[in-house]
Amino acid sequence: MLRPTVSPGGCRGLRFETSHLLRMRDHGVHVPELVMIDDDWIVLRDNGHILKDQIKAAVAAGDTAKTCDLIERAATGLADLHARECAHGAPLLRNITICKDGSTGFIDFEEDPEGCMLIADAQARDVLLFLFSIQREIKKRPDLLQLGWHKYQLHAGRNAAPLRPLATVLHRIFPVYLVLLLFRRWLGTDAITALQTYQTLYRDVGSLAGNPRIGDNSNNSTIQ
After folding, report:
1. Would you say 136 and 190 are in contact if contact means Cβ atoms under 8 Å apart?
2. Three-state SS for 177?
3. Which of 91, 98, 148, 182 has CB 3.0 to 4.6 Å from 75, enough for a Cys bridge?
4. Res 88 pLDDT > 80
5. How far is CA 17 from each of CA 8, 82, 95, 124, 167, rounded to the nearest angstrom?
6. Cα distance between residue 195 and residue 201, in whole Å
């Protein structure tokens, strides 16, 4: 769950991504329309505006309401994708779109975690990557990370399949979190981002998934 699934690249990688896209489409996920396909290339129809760009523009303009709305729509879209028994593989803000009709779309299906792990595990991995992306792209706004996580939980439901494997992996890496926390002053951007994401998640996942809490939220300060 903590490693990337590597695309084979070349023509094989192209067929691999096309197959993933078509499988998502067949499950009702809003993905780009496949216009043409050849042995060496594919043509996809536009699937809307990149969410990352839309959020950054809203943040720069100081439009908090729009920023929160975009985060909530992305979280709801991911929960809906999971409800359709799919996993994206890399649901980062740059791989989520807002279509002209206001619906949430998805692009870039190079990774296929469903091919090497259970669907619930792949979905749990999606949640980790989605929230990591929020924290990485919108620094010093942990409230947006929390908003995305809480909106996902609300839409997915307390008994959503990804929550138990998510709680399990967070429990297992808790000692690593503690070690990194000691050295946070010397950590780079990605490590700090991972700490912030973990801190938000471990407060809630254990109880929601029916597991013991792996942390107590009473004396935790926000990592900046």
Report:
1. yes
2. helix
3. 148
4. yes
5. 10, 18, 14, 21, 29
6. 10
Q: Average the pLDDT over 186-203 and give the result.
A: 86
List the domains of the chain with CATH numbers: 10-160 (1.10.510.10)
Q: Which residue pairs, CB below 8 angstroms and at least 24 apart, start in 149-153?
A: 149/75, 149/200, 149/201, 149/204, 151/71, 151/72, 151/75, 151/76, 151/79, 152/75, 152/76, 152/78, 152/79, 152/127, 153/204, 153/208
Is the predicted pLDDT of residue 153 greater than 80, yes or no? yes
Question: Starting at the edge strand that comes first in sequence, how are the strands of the sheet with 96-98 ordered?
Answer: 49-50, 96-98, 104-106
Q: How do residues 90-120 score in pLDDT, each as one tens digit?
A: 999 999 999 888 899 999 988 878 777 899 9
Contact 200, 149 (CB under 8 A): yes
**Whether pLDDT at 198 is above 80:** yes
Nearest partner of 59 among 117, 168, 127, 137, judged by Cα:
137
Write out the two tokens for 222.
């926000």
Instruction: Check residue 205 and give its pLDDT.
Output: 65
Q: What is the pLDDT of residue 206?
A: 57
What is the residue whose two structure tokens read 């990557």?
129
**Residues whose CB is less than 8 angstroms from the CB of residue 4 and which lie 6 or more positions away in sequence, other chains included:** 111
Q: Tokens standing for 75? A: 């979280």
